[in-house]
Amino acid sequence: MLKRVFIGFLFIILLMVATALGLDRWISWKTAPFIYEDVTSLPHRQVGVVLGTAKYYRTGVYNQYYLYRIQGALNAYNSGKVNYLLLSGDNAMSSYNEPMTMRRDLIKAGVDPQDIVLDYAGFRTLDSIVRTRKVFDTNDFIIITQRFHCERALFIALHMGIQAQCFAVPSPKNMLSVRFREVGARLGALADLYIMKREPRFLGPLVPIPAVHEIPEDAQGYPAVTPEQLLESEQKIHQ
Predict the structure, then answer these.
(1) pLDDT per residue over 193-224, tens digit each?
(2) Cβ atoms within 10 Å of 186's Cβ, excluding its own
(3) Positive or negative: CA dihedral 146, 72, 136, 80
(4) Which of 3, 84, 94, 118 is geometrically suited to a Cys-Cys bond with 99, CB 3.0 to 4.6 A?
(5) What is the distance between the alpha carbons of residues 34 and 45, in angstroms, rounded to a whole number?
């Protein structure tokens, strides 16, 4: 009896794993036509959306995912494939500000500050993609991130009826654990889209690109821009 229960349990586990891997491969297959790894073949679009991540893996150690995304954004911008860079990332904690960090590094590398737009509410990939369409009034854009992330971001865009392509930048070596977590992230994205039908945590007023995007003079990089400063900036845009 116990043996049958164990075999049945094992069969269910194997079925779940096979289903998860199958869905993972399906997302990769469905989005493959919209992914570019060579900047010369990348189509021109007005806006490139850089998906945020932490700059440091741990204290004093750079996050290679971040560095590759910044370099990819520079490559797309300097080659004229995009005219504006929308930096979308997490700003939920007082000591963590992905968009401002990316902005500072891109300006240091030569990007015109007027060509940079910040999205402080890109808490998740779904938020970043949907907000690009609904808040920044951009329906056809280039996503800039690693290929595995491209696939999930593009899948969300396709499901939402948003036109997008992705410039897949290199990934660090030894990313097996990250790729394993990505399977779980894709299952979560499927649940968000098909079961819970989630929307971004925040939307807000329409801020078309190009437009004047002012950063408050007293806005700090660390800690993060406060909600009050962000509201002040949005009010200036619409005056």
Answers:
(1) 999 999 998 888 888 887 555 555 555 443 34
(2) 20
(3) negative
(4) 118
(5) 13
Beta bridge pairs of residue 145: 168
pTM of the complete model? 0.83
Question: For residues 97, 112, 35 and 192, what is the CA-based torsion angle, rounded to 10 degrees?
Answer: 30
The DSSP secondary-structure symbol of 116 reads E
The per-residue pLDDT for range 56-106, each reduced to its tens digit, is 887 778 999 999 999 999 999 999 999 999 999 887 665 568 899 999 999
C-alpha distance across the termini of the chain, in Å: 74
Number of H helices, E strands in the chain: 7, 8
User: Is residue 208 a contact partner of residue 132, using CB atoms and an 8 Å limit?
Assistant: no
167: which DSSP letter?
A: E
- What average pLDDT is seen over the chain? 85
Burial of 16 (0-12, 13-18, 19+ CB in 10 A): exposed
E strand or H helix at 119: strand 116-119
Cα dihedral 70, 75, 76, 80 sign:
positive
CA distance 33 to 111: 29
* The residue type at 31: T
42 membership: H or E segment, kind and range: none
Closest by Cα among 60, 75, 143, 64 to 106: 75
Cis peptide before 113 (omega within 30 of 0): no
* Structural tokens at position 32: 């493959």
Tell me, what amino acid is at 86? L
Cα distances (Å, whole numbers) of residue 44 to 107, 141, 158 = 21, 9, 19
